[in-house]
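Entry: tRNA-2-methylthio-N(6)-dimethylallyladenosine synthase
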Amino acid sequence: MTLPVPLDETPSSAPEAQDEAQGAVDRRTYEVRTFGCQMNVHDSERISGLLEGAGLSRVEDGQADVVVFNTCAVRENADNKLYGNLGILKAVKEARPGMQIAVGGCLAQKDRETILKKAPWVDAVFGTHNIGALPALLQRARHNQDAQLEILESLDVFPSTLPTKRESVYAGWVSISVGCNNTCTFCIVPSLRGKERDRRPGEILAEIEALVADGAVEVTLLGQNVNSYGVEFGDRGAFAKLLRACGAIEGLERVRFTSPHPAAFTDDVIDAMAETPNVMPQLHMPLQSGSDSILKAMRRSYRSSRFLGILDRVRERMPHAAISTDIIVGFPGETEEDFQATLDVVERSRFATAFTFQYSKRPGTPAAELPDQLSKAVVQERFERLTALQDRIAREENARQVGTLVEVLVTDQQGRKGGETHRLTGRARDQRLVHFSVPSGADVPRPGDFVTLPITEAASFHLLSDPTTDQYALRRSRAGDAWDRSQADSCAAPAPASGAPRAVSLGMPSLPVRGSAR
């Protein structure tokens, strides 16, 4: 019986060869490049955990030995983005014997053999349903000197069962479901992610508790339609119950979720948000269009009046809630009247942020076959009008924050001008981006700590705070302690606090998925 060879080892029985192989181990690194939504970002954490579990380490500088593309297929330019990157790496790989390239995610699930035909220098292609196969595929590709393709048609195991290399010690993603049962005519996701599969509440809460034990103070619950959670096991109130259960987890200070569907958004969820202190006053609610005729053509099972009614009820219970959205411009058949309806809903909704997209024809979706596809010039002109309106609204809504006192969770990110202004960056409870300065002589917060300060200036996409010493309050947290430990680990220095965080979570147990392709 031949034992599998780990990704970071070369088979040999000679001590000299083993020493040489160990040197290769020390040098073998990986990089994960992520395109797409929060689900892809979370999947990339799983990919990183799998690779580190296989003995690789994340590249710190220079070219990685293994490059993994975790792709998106929602936008038309996703294909060009991937193949452009693969083209650049072709010459790099030719100059680096032993380098490997893998492609996964939604575009891999869709294109399959096409990727290997267009880029035969790729070593492994895997789909959305079998992320866990990546180390074995890379190993087989090295051993056989041949590209490996493995695409499953249904979910193998929940991603939550896989090892995770979290991007942040103070915040984490938690998948509560995967897949989607809707049939929106513009969306290719259901065919790539499959039907909705729900995790049991106990598994979800156990994963959250593990994250909190590692130092996280914020979690974001993920699902393609997160508020339809529970449909698989017959409990339509399951999502509201889950939010309330999160409120009972000691040490968990902030809970967010994305993305809900307006058609399934119920008042019990609004009540749970308003009555659970650690559920944040922030909601991402995709509109897509303000025109009822376009919503019908999109197969979005709600109309603009229902959408606006949800926003009214949310703001009645949480007056200071910040609401964001997604909007598609230029859907086939969209008239100027339809577009004006979208502008009217946006004006009334007063979104804090809107993610606006020009309609992109995706082969395999019903919308791609619809008549009256709009010209690029018309779509671009409408897109510019919409973004100008939303930028004005966001600037006005942010201006209302000036003079208010906000609590900010400090992140390890930095604003574009952070190096010049020496401001740090964080997120308010309502998810608004805040760049702030630390008064001279005051203690500097760590990522994961909390600061309370006044908003002194506003722009369309961020808030600014330049507090005086008496306006600035720092609250150190367990998440900040975890950040210190993670930095000590990365520098091989003694940790300033006892107990080190796990570098790679081993995943959470999960019930078998019905209909598995195993």
